[in-house]
Amino acid sequence: MSLPAFPLMLVFSVFQGLLPLGTMDCTEMQHIELSRMSDKPTEVCVSPHLLTGFSFDAPVSVEVQDEIRFEEVARGRTSIHVLPPKDLTAGERLRLSVTYLEGKSQETFFLVLVGSSGRSTRQVEVFRDQRTRESLEIEIKLERTKNQKLQDELVQLRREFKQLQTSTQDPRRLTRLISSNSMFIEGIRTQRVKLTGLKTQPGEISSQRVASYRSRHRFAIEVALESLHPQPWLVVTVEAWDENGQRAEFASIWQAAPLQMKETQVIVVEAEMEETSTWPKGTITLRLREEGPRDIIVSNIPCP
């Protein structure tokens, strides 16, 4: 049987995907939004002896394919209820031709009833997209342009990330230090603290080695700690002050993992400090704190 010709054919999209013949996922409720840009008819699963109702958002005229076979077809101004044929087989398809009656040009679209054994969608709600085909085409074009722009930006970000990853993945590289003009002419200034001149707070965690580092823009302190305590220790805050009691702010703390018993581990704290800065003066004192009550105080740390 050939399909009738209409001035304007309106097809639609649904929120749920189409499944292979006879294997549709039947739900109690199905919501359909009609779109002029869709190229596939919507499928609705039906079953003999089970009533399926359709409600529309405007007055419609509905033609049912092989209507004479149906047990019952009840039409309303904005609805239709169908009781499928008793001999409807699983996977069999019957067409509903739905024409909206409002407006100068009546719009028509198709629904496809798909036979299912013992399963049926009880209620179908149908809504119409009021936008014109031209406006939808403009929106799609704008969306494609926007998506292409985002794709181009993503490609650029991936390229920049790869370049950054290449430049930073090897910690031995000097390129970043040189290109950022961070080093003095003689390099990074370094000064190690002699253990004989080192003052630490007595306890179960002790300092084994301390060194300070200075670039044009940064000041860092390296502290190697040893633990004799069974409880792991992880630094979470740092305080520092110079000989005059002036406080110093450290921007970052690095510790590879919590310090374990009978283990030596390095902790690095770093502060921003421009070359013209006068801080710190002389030596400084550093206090490292954990979440609990334990802390480490390291004194007499010079700035190179």
UniProtKB/TrEMBL annotation:
Protein name stated in the entry: DUF2381 family protein
One Pfam short name: DUF2381
Keywords associated with the record: Coiled coil
Coiled-coil region: 133-167
